[in-house]
Write a structure and sequence with these properties.
This protein is an alpha+beta fold. It is 20% helix and 32% strand. It contains 8 helices and 17 strands. The longest helix has 16 residues. The radius of gyration is 22 Å and the shape is elongated.
Length: 397
């Protein structure tokens, strides 16, 4: 993969998104495919042997190539207007110099109960600039880092530290964007919304007339793109056929231009609910279905990270997206915890498109074949904010 902003790099993230969607169910959720790709990509940079091959099957890269791709991706995303990205690694163990050098710009820190004295003497050459002095309160330090990296949208780690962690890798992604044309606040009013179970209730719904060129059909769905100031990220809302779920609907947001059918109209009266989605997703239980198995157990070969044997114990992502009259704000934090193992002219037509039943939201960066899904969301429930299934509630109850 020559560069993250190449077609190959974007393809890798879109493929991960498409493979992940069937694991997410049909209840409300918001996730960040690129956030997960970045976090696992940093792990893949230190994976070797069959463990690296498995991760490459999901991410498209491994080893030194993964380190380069993650670095390029972070730089590219950081240069996208309205997007901020940061990665941090905290460990009880010395990390290999090669791993650290391969991820420039990544913050490295120390966890409590650092196990230096339990490691062989030859490992100490990899301690680099890690301090043997007083170790700070890692929970507060990482929570403060997460809060700052997401502009306060996510207050801390998705999972608190319990002392069992030997390495915590965190990727944070944040987006703030204003609509090119804001929704007039005085037009927002309650409109009926029918959820996935068929229950109809009123929800605050924004209204605006938009150009027909902002709307197209793809894969049996209606896609509405609302451009943002600065031309950085693009936000697309996707309405599928009645009864269709996110795995069928959301990929329409990144359908190639040749697969799109333009709307034949002069303008569109758009009715879009104002909403907030916030969910926490236990990604580890999805990784097996995504083809990653060896990295999750004692047989993992992550020897490019540290001389101590480790495997992935937990992978959790918390994400939030808020859509309002002025624009969109979103953030995602991905936490990987490791432990040692051991048409023709026609009369003017105004189309009405109402997102009055379950629909998707997709935030992308890049253009054409280089489009990368930053955030995927599905809104099915009536409530403005919904906390979806998490590690502590796998059934969503």
């Amino acid at each position: 993969m020559a560069g993250f902003d190449s077609a190959a790099g974007a393809d890798a993230v879109r493929e991960l998104a498409g493979r992940w969607l069937p694991q997410l169910g049909s209840r409300d959720f918001v996730v960040s495919p690129v956030g997960l790709w970045l976090a696992l990509g940093a792990v893949a940079s230190g994976a070797r042997g069959r463990t690296g091959e498995e991760l490459a099957g999901l991410l498209g890269v491994e080893g030194e190539a993964a380190a380069r791709a993650v670095t390029e991706a972070r730089r590219w995303l950081g240069a996208t207007d309205g997007v901020a990205v940061a990665t941090g690694v905290w460990s009880t163990m010395p990390l290999l110099d090669g791993f650290r050098r391969g991820l420039p710009g990544v913050r490295f820190g120390v966890l409590p109960e650092a196990g230096y004295f339990a490691l062989p003497d030859e490992v100490f050459g990899a301690t680099d600039d890690l301090s043997f002095g007083e170790i700070p309160d890692a929970q507060k330090e990482i929570d403060d880092w997460v809060r700052g990296a997401t502009g306060g949208r996510i207050p801390g780690l998705p999972l608190g530290l319990d002392g069992s962690e030997d390495l915590v890798l965190v990727n944070a992604l944040a987006l703030t964007a204003s609509w090119l044309t804001a929704f007039p606040a005085h037009l927002t009013r309650d409109e009926p919304f029918t959820d996935g179970s068929g229950v109809t209730r009123p929800v605050p719904t924004m209204r605006q007339r938009i150009p027909a060129g902002w709307v197209w059909y793809a894969d049996g769905a209606v896609v509405v793109e609302l451009p943002c100031e600065g031309g950085g990220a693009r936000v697309r809302f996707v309405l599928g056929a009645e009864g269709a779920g996110p795995r069928e609907v959301l990929p329409a947001a990144w359908a190639a231009r040749g697969e799109r059918t333009p709307l034949v109209a002069d303008s569109v009266d758009l009715a879009l609910p104002r909403f907030t989605l916030r969910t926490k997703t236990d990604v580890r239980r999805h990784l097996d279905a995504l083809g990653v198995r060896l990295a999750l157990g004692p047989e993992a070969d992550l020897s490019g990270i540290s001389a101590a044997a480790m495997y992935i114990d937990k992978v959790v992502q918390e994400a939030v997206v808020e859509v309002a009259e002025e624009g969109v704000e979103a953030a995602a934090v991905t936490q990987v915890t490791m432990t040692r193992s051991a048409a023709a002219p026609r009369p003017a037509v105004v189309e009405r498109i109402a997102f009055d039943r379950p629909f998707g939201v997709v935030v992308l960066a890049g253009e054409g074949s280089g489009e990368v899904p930053l955030f995927l969301g599905w809104r099915q429930e009536h409530s403005q904010s919904y906390r979806g299934p998490g590690p502590d509630r796998p059934d969503g109850s």
